[in-house]
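This entry is set out below.
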Amino acid sequence: MPVKSFKFISPGIFINEIDNSQLPKIGEEMGPVIIGRTERGPAMRPVKVNSFSEFVEVFGNPIPGGQGGDIWRDGNYTTPTYASFAAQAYLRNSNAATVVRLLGADQDGVAAGGKAGWQTTLQNDGDADDNGGAYGLFVFQSGSVATSVDGVLAAVWYLTTGSIQLSGTLRAQADGTTPLGDSAGALYADNGGEYKALIQGAHGVTSKEVSFNFTPSSAKYIRKVFNTNPTLTNTSITNTDQTASYWLGQTYEGHLRNVVGDVTTANTFGVVLGLDYLTNSAANFREGFRAAQTPWIISQDLGVYGNYQAEDMAKLFKFHTLDAGEDEQKKLKISIADIKASTSVDEPYGSFSVLIRDARDNDNAPVVLERYSSVNLNPNSNNYIARAIGDQYLVWDDTERSHRVYGNYLNASKFIRVEVNSTVDAGAADPSYLPFGSFGPVRMKQWTYNSAASASAPSNAWVTGGVGGIPHAASVKFIDGGVQFTGSAYYPAIPLRVSASAGGLSNPKNAYFGIDTTQNGNNRHDSSYADTVRALPVDVSSFATSTSTEFSYMFSLDDIIPSTEGSANALGAWVSGSRLARNSWTSLSASYTEVLDQGYNRFTVPLCGGLDGLDITEKDPFNYTRALADGTDSTKYAYYSAKRAIDTVADPEVVEYNLMTMPGIYHAGLTSHMMEVCESRGDALAVIDLDSGYRTDAESTAAVADRVGSVSTAITNLTARGLNSSYGCAYYPWVQINDSISNSLLWAPPSIVALGTFSSSQRKSELWFAPAGFTRGGLTEGSAGIGVIQTRERLTSKDRDDLYEANVNPIASFPAEGIVIFGQKTLQVTPSALDRINVRRLMIFVKKEISRMAATVLFDQNVPATWNRFISKAEPFLRSVQARLGLSDFKIVLDESTTTADLVDRNVMYAKIFLKPARSIEFIALDFVITNTGAGFED
């Protein structure tokens, strides 16, 4: 302290204590970056979690694999999500990890062969063996043959080969006689709500006959009797006796009930037709991942009711999920509530609330996950909807290999962002506008068939019919015999609440109009909702209409009517077109506020159109054999996706971490890219898996003995790569772990337990202690943070020597001590202190902390006083590391000999820091000397 800082009033001795021994603050824990598949969550961008419970909340539980069931509707649980287990292992003993969830992406402009997603291909050359593609079951109401009836698309099958058609009793003609004709494309009557389908291979050979219905409690329920596992069509991973040529995709039980009626008792008739539109296939989902979104939310009508069309109302805003993929649209819906018109001339904007709800709840008991109250459309307000919720999103730039950030407001929501119409965002929209309704999700356009008028395919229809036994023929002709039929077929739509009293609400004013996610007649969730909000095929937009698509509905509070006109206690009911017909509250009163004054000020919209972009016929979409081997950015989407995920964390100014792993992915190019990124950053160690020849059951149908791999294969493959980097390390072999959540056993790549051992080792001691040996590497003793049962291969002493000589760290099994990591080498071939993991991790830690200290003097004066201030921070830190056995000695040189006058003129401060890392003991030599009885030990 300078003398002038003392306060001198009377004579005396003045003493001040200066503590230069304080340790600088260590930055918050960084932890590893873990790349791989998870159950759900944000995709293809780094997300930091601070505990395993937070990981589960964001990304879901680890999946051990081996689970079947309705994979199409419930998700792929057939193979382990190794990234989830890596997070569990590490977070058992540490408090930070960054996760990048893998989904399917493809490079801009890539050819069809490199596209993400999946497709079943129609072979349509006009021959009788046409097969494959998508087939739809249309079910129509009962009625006389002279009456026009309504029907719906009730189910969709996807076939890799062959076709599917109905069988049974053909629908009678007008004169009561049975029509002539082929079964393909023919109209069949149900049998007590039951249909019969024939699964046919190429050339029309029937391989299976299935009776089914649409009653979930029945043993013949359609989703119980047909295959719903797309991976069974993959002959590379499915034994011959278990393979299937098809799977059942969407079923629309809710829409079927709402349009056709009670199909368990009603007399209905059905037909199976191909689902194509011109050259576009309904079985083509070759597209990269994308987020779900709501349709546009529209304003009220401020004009004359006689001109009202809901689709002409102003588009105000829409919501997008932050988490890409299909999961969020199945689990979330969004409600607009508490809509209030302005009551002040000084504030012309009204207000409303946004509720993010569980899609499986009902209006009797809403489950609100997030609420944003009293937001508005005033861009200058603190409660402006974009400001309150956030509107930022990331777009990947393939040229720059980084994300670009768009939007003005940080995202406050964990689930969604808002997109505001540019007119509203510019403050140019009418301040009176309030959210009053929404467009419906896009669906395929309805079609009408009249056999008396034409036998041609309906215009703009996603349907092709069965002439001459060819289900995917160029025209629709239900039977060759020419049965009379007039009907309209509708593609799926989410049902809307039509009455405030539906569902037995205690207070009808609490009804949310708009979509209804419950089953008709009760408050249970409609499980077919998940299929209704799925994305449309790649050839059509899921968010904008075209010549072959339409909005499934148009909803507005402007169409709410009093159930009993003139009654003071009339309940609200929604009837499409009622404002135009002058039946609604807003038209009867000539004021849009009337419906709000009646208490009907809320509605719900869906999220739809999200895609995972994965090949659903693969158990593991990122398997080595087919998805990654020989891959490049332009030839295999799985390779491109994994490489892009690595690149999202390449910039040290975007995300901090000190370890990187991509468990279960051992492609040489990708693991080398991980090490290159870590070395370029200089602050992380890549923990890679090796191609040892081991293949999981997601790779092939070969017996386990034929796909176990070997030490020699691992060494040969690694040596051929010529790696020489201290920024990578590898382990061998795979291990069996216990999933404590599901109590399941699974085989896991060694990077998982290595990562867990790094975490437990630094918790027990320090990160610069070797994460190996019986003290810190004992996997049987719990060092991995996850239960380890056995190794895939029991290593001999020679195996361990061979692996260690090749710089691979063995995971050994000893009779008494159990399973232990028995090495800590990096992949650096050149002998130096950095060929050991503990030294490399020490250097990563020290460099990171010293650089943080250096940042505190950046832009300060380049003078000795500043140099001393830096030294006063760095020296106590290094002394602390030395005291904790990380260094045996160190020295800092920062004076005129390093920062010369020339460097000062160039605004450079240059310091030299000399370190002597403490080495670990890896070999112990002991001489036991046997002496004669009379010998003295002092000799």
About this structure: The chain is about 20% helix and 25% strand. Residues 466-470 have pLDDT under 50 and may be disordered.
